[in-house]
Fold this protein.
Amino acid sequence: MFDTATASTPARRMARGLVLAFAGSLLLTASAKVSVPFYPVPMTLQTLALLVLGFTLGPRLGALSVIAYLAQGAAGLPVFADTPAKGIGLAYMMGPTGGYLLGFIASAWLAGIFAAGGWTRTLWRALPASLLAQVVVFVPGLIWLGALIGFDKPILALGLYPFIIGGIVKSALAAAIAVALVRHRAR
């Protein structure tokens, strides 16, 4: 006898994954709209959102959420911080924030790897995992920024130092949220 529930399980899993990734991209969009205007890169809540996505959805769906977000932005939707006022689409993505946006994918993926490895069971393990996953955003971000405005400019003063305190706070919040969700699921 043919079991239709079993036959549709992979399709249901795929549909569920796509819905979760799309919902994650919407969370990233909302978090981009909460920003503090720094120059040349604004401070947003996006790193908090992408860490939580990675911790809760895992490496594949967390990264897929970011990829969906970036695809929406590349298509011209005003999903990024300060859009449409500062441009949209690929033109915006090629600007000062382009490297950070690419780093979002690796950050969500790494947060998901940490979660899959059990790092979100305790705050003492989740916090360093969250900090490291956030640092990943800055590597391509600073390289891109330097290539764009020149490495002779104060790249760290423009693209890193203003974000350190906020990044630590967002990492701590993401770690606390991840641990709370793990404990809630265990009940």
The two ends are 37 Å apart (CA to CA). The helical segments are 4-7, 9-32, 46-74, 89-93, 98-116, 123-149, 155-159, 164-186. The first strand starts at residue 35 and ends at 36. Strands lie at 35-36, 43-44.
